[in-house]
Amino acid sequence: MPTNAQLKPFDWNGIGKQQGDEATECSFWTGREGQLCVQYFRPGSDVQYQPHTHSEYTIVVCLEGEVFKKQLGQTQVIGPGEVMMGNHGVEHASGYFARQGRPCEAVTISLDRRLLVNLTSDFDLPGLEGEMCAAFVGKVNGSALRDCAQGIAQEMRNKLVGHKLVIETQAIRLLVETIRCWPRAGILEIEADQSNHLPRREFVRAYEFMRWCRKESFRLQHLCRFLGSSEERFNRLFLASTRHTPASFYNRMLLHRGAELLRNPKLSVKEIGFELGFKTPSHFIAAFRREFAFAPQEYHQHASVNGPLLQFG
Q1: Which pLDDT belongs to residue 285?
Q2: Which residues of 237-264 are buried (b: 16+ CB within 10 A; e: fewer)?
Q3: Average pLDDT over every residue of 134-140
Q4: What angle do CA 107, 175, 151 make, to 5 degrees?
Q5: What is the pLDDT of the chain when averaged over all its residues?
Q6: What tens digit of pLDDT does each residue of 160-197 get?
Q7: Nearest in space to 204 (alpha carbons), one of 110, 63, 85, 104
Q8: 81-121 pLDDT tens trace
Q9: Less Cβ around it within 10 Å: N or C end of the chain?
Q10: How many CA atoms lie within 13 A of 80 on its CB side?
């Protein structure tokens, strides 16, 4: 069982500062039947999610900073007041970035495919039968969308009496307003992966657990206990969502984080290996070389003079 000190960074009621970051704000609301989930997210530092797949659709509204998503061969970036969608059964990568000294702030709605099926006839959407599904590309904006997202963010932050009912009402309105204003030329009919994947809420929470967990402390049983999931179920759905086992995915995240730290000329390779939780510098060096095909010392020297060799996300 993790200690309280180990679990503190993953407490969504208030994640503590880590590595000099500002505190992250992240909260979820889930509808009664689990078909609708809302997230308010204000990360304390830039976040990039490696490629993964969800069974849900998502509507992402940027309130501050920038949000990007790579899917269907396109990269879409949205700023304050703009909206984009993630698609059911489509692999994508995404990220949340501060801009002009202001941290990113976003509201995301995850919705079960069945909710969208119910709107097919009313909104003249492509048929969603069998293996085919609608895919939304591009981005939109509008005052109604921004107002709904801001209202959701305020309710999730303040948690006044009746806030759950207000969040549900605003989320449904945001869904309807988004579909109303989406250009029909930006709605494709594609064949998507219909298998079960890890729900977005669990993926985000698992990602943050991995992001802040030192290598010496990472245990799958601790992560599954934190999520309230069995190890068998989590392993199966995580592999379907990411094409990696949780351990492999965690190790890649850890080494990518190490490469980011190596951009700082004030930190030595030994200090970075210790910070990540490797038992010895040689252990960190060997793992880094296996992942990137060159030693951390080489990357450290190049990044301090010429900028980073690696791009993440």
Answers
A1: 94
A2: bbbbbbebebeebbbebbbbbbbbbbbe
A3: 95
A4: 45
A5: 87
A6: 999 999 999 999 999 999 999 999 999 998 988 889 99
A7: 110
A8: 999 999 999 999 999 999 998 999 999 999 998 888 888 77
A9: N
A10: 11
Owner of token pair 């060159």: 294
Residue type, 290: R
Domains and their CATH numbers in the chain: 14-191 (2.60.120.10), 200-306 (1.10.10.60)
Residues 6+ apart with CB under 8 A from 7: 226
> Does residue 305 register a pLDDT over 70?
no
- The residue length of the chain stands at 313
What is the rounded CA–CA span in Å between residue 14 and residue 17?
A: 9
Q: Give the integer Cα–Cα distance in Å for 232 and 268.
A: 39
pLDDT at 146 over 80: yes
Which residues fall within 8 angstroms of residue 44, CB to CB, at 6 or more apart? 15, 17, 18, 21, 22, 23, 24, 103
Which amino acid is it at 196? Answer: N
Tokens of 64: 């501050």
Q: Dump strand ranges (E) for the chain.
A: 25-30, 36-42, 47-52, 57-64, 66-71, 74-78, 82-86, 92-97, 105-111, 132-136, 140-141, 187-191
Query: Residue type at 270?
Result: K
Using an 8 Å Cβ cutoff, are 43 and 96 in contact?
A: yes
Provide the β-strand partners of residue 75: 70
